[in-house]
Write a structure and sequence with these properties.
Length: about 270
C-alpha cells in the first residue's frame, strides 16, 4: 500500500512544474501506458479504473490523457448520464454491469456507482434506505469483481473550495467547456460541507484491503494527472516497466486512511 501523504497541511504540495517538463513527462508516461496495453491484451487481463471527486476536480482531463494514445478497441470510457425510469426500478448495480471490462480491456469510469454515496446522497436523489443498502453491499460487489479477475483501482480526486470555484467560473466563461455545465454546478459550492461529509462517510465505509481508495490532491491539474498515471502504472504488471519513471509523489497521491480528514489532508 502507498504511504501516507508526507505533510499535515492541505496547502502544502509538490511545487508546480513548467509546461515543457509536464509535456515531456506526460509523453514518457503515455509510452508506458502503450506498453501496459500490449501486456493486458496479450494476457487477456481486465482492468477497471474508477474516478470519483467533486465537480471540476479534474476527472475528465486525467482520463483524456490516459486514453489519448491507446487503442480505442480495447479502451472504453464510461460516463453515464441521468438514470432512466427503468434504471431506477432495477437492482442498483445492474446499470453498471454491462460496462464492466471483458478480457483485453481497460475501462475507465468517469463517476460510477459511487454516485449514490455522493450526489444522490447530498441532493436527496435516493432514500435513506437505498443509501444504507448501497453502503452495506458495495464492498461485497467490488470483491466479487476482483474475485472474477478484474483488476480494480479507485481514485478520489480532492480539491479545495477555492480551486473548485475558480474552475467552475472558468467552465462557465470558456465556450469550449460550457458543455460540462450542469444544473448541479450551482449546488457544488452551496453544499460544499454536505459533500465533504458525504465524501468522508463514503471513504471510511468503502475503503478496504481488497478494493482500497487512493486519494489524489488535485489542486494542481498537471501534477495530479502525472501522478495518477504513475500510480496506475506502478500497480499493474507489464513488461519492460520503467520503474524509476513511474514512482508517484506521496505529497500528491496516497492510500486513504481514516485519519486524513482530521489531519487536514482532505479539503474540509
Amino acid at each position: 500500500m502507498r504511504g501516507k501523504i508526507g505533510t499535515n497541511n492541505l496547502s502544502q504540495s509538490s511545487p508546480a512544474i513548467s509546461r515543457e517538463i509536464y509535456e515531456n513527462s506526460l509523453r514518457k508516461l503515455q509510452i508506458e501506458l502503450v506498453k501496459l496495453q500490449r501486456h493486458f491484451i496479450k494476457h487477456n487481463e481486465k482492468i477497471l479504473v474508477i474516478f470519483e471527486g467533486r465537480d471540476a476536480s479534474g476527472k475528465d482531463g486525467t482520463i483524456k490523457r490516459i486514453v489519448q494514445h491507446l487503442s480505442p478497441r480495447e479502451t472504453r470510457v464510461v460516463a453515464l448520464g441521468k438514470p432512466s425510469d427503468r434504471d431506477c426500478s432495477s437492482w442498483y448495480f445492474q446499470r453498471y454491469v454491462p460496462y464492466l471490462p471483458i478480457a483485453q480491456e481497460l475501462v475507465l469510469f468517469n463517476r460510477s456507482w459511487y454516485n449514490r454515496a455522493g450526489v444522490e446522497r447530498v441532493m436527496g436523489f435516493c432514500t435513506a434506505a437505498e443509501y444504507e443498502e448501497f453502503i452495506g453491499s458495495v464492498s461485497e460487489f467490488e470483491h466479487m469483481l476482483v474475485r472474477s479477475g478484474i483488476k480494480l483501482i479507485k481514485y478520489y480526486l480532492d480539491i479545495s473550495k477555492t480551486e473548485q470555484k475558480k474552475r467552475l467560473d472558468k467552465r462557465r466563461s470558456d465556450p469550449l467547456t460550457q458543455w460540462k455545465i450542469s444544473a448541479l454546478d450551482n449546488q457544488a459550492l452551496k453544499k460544499w460541507k454536505q459533500y465533504s461529509l458525504a465524501r468522508d462517510e463514503m471513504l471510511v465505509h468503502t475503503h478496504n484491503l481488497i478494493s482500497p481508495w487512493t486519494i489524489v490532491r488535485a489542486d494542481d491539474k498537471q501534477l495530479a494527472r502525472l501522478n495518477i498515471i504513475k500510480d496506475m502504472l506502478s500497480r499493474l504488471d507489464y513488461a519492460d516497466k520503467a520503474k524509476r519513471l513511474i514512482l508517484p509523489d506521496p505529497r500528491i497521491i496516497s492510500t486513504y486512511d481514516a485519519t486524513q480528514p482530521e489531519k487536514g489532508l482532505l479539503a474540509p
